[in-house]
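Collaboration report, partner site 2.

Our partner group contributed sequences for two proteins of shared interest, and the home lab folded both. The records are reproduced in the order in which they were received, starting with the first partner submission.
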Amino acid sequence: MERGDRHSAKLRVVDGMRHGLPCREALKLADVPLSERTAYRALQVVRAVGEEGLADGRHGHPYKLTGQVREWLVEYCRGAPGTSSRVVQAEIEERFRVAVSISQINRVRRSLGMSSRGVGGKSVV
């Protein structure tokens, strides 16, 4: 399946699920070779960051820290820069229902110059 076809297929399945269809039924109606696990992941991505989250084409899970989740992370860390990544991780999970690894949170924080590390490399929390 081509990348664009796979993206369209995921959108069809997610759309069906968002309109109340059970996952298996949405997969059957969309007539696409996706697993239920992939369908639920796609639904989770769309709920967290919108349909653009399905189109990023990256491997791993960087899509989880885009859109609203990333905006929230930046604002939160600017307001409380010493907060540990473990606390940030729990807040993201509770607020957005998205599981994000601490390493991914740290990668984004470093790229923004917002490390949770204090003087001497020790956590300031």
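Second partner submission, folded after the first:
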Amino acid sequence: MYDNLKALSIAMLIVILDEFRIYFEIFLQCLPGKSGYLFRRIFTTFIFSEISKNVSIGRNVQIEKGSSIKIGSKCTLGDNCYLNSVGGRIEIEDDVSFNRNVHINASVGGKIKINKYCLIGPNVVFRTANHVFESTRIPIRNQGHNFFDITLFEDVWLGANVVILPGVEIGKGSIIAAGSVVTKNIPEFSIAGGVPAIVLKKRKK
């Protein structure tokens, strides 16, 4: 009887502590201004395994498995960004800026690597995995996933509402027009756009 009560007490304590953590995170997410950025920066030091100095984290940023996420120096995560690396890894180098509502998802597997000086517009989606759908006799949700890495080389600019699909590499200095869906590699110093995205012209070096 005593052992059962002890086990129940421990279980309740774990639930209470987890709920307290959630409430505390919600409180931090709502803090405005420079003080909010500072407190979120301090708190996320304990979430990420590798986070550098001078990282600015906006309100309502959601992070899943920060131990598999690396963020370099002088990066900015805008309000409502979502990072999930439960099954994979996310690596963000120095001086990368994410606007609001950016979705960075490596939850099934694969790695998302974003190199220095990249600019990511609002509502951009990175996704390393796709559903398998070959069989028409099995619900798509039960057929599993396949996944591939995504890489942005240095100084890439993604406009608003761009979608980056699995296996894509975007070359150094390239620009992707707003609303594009990138399904194939884009060479360096290209301007690309469309659904699916194609190279429209080259930038002058």
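Feedback sent to the partner group on the second submission included the following. The radius of gyration is 20 Å. The chain has a mean pLDDT of 86.
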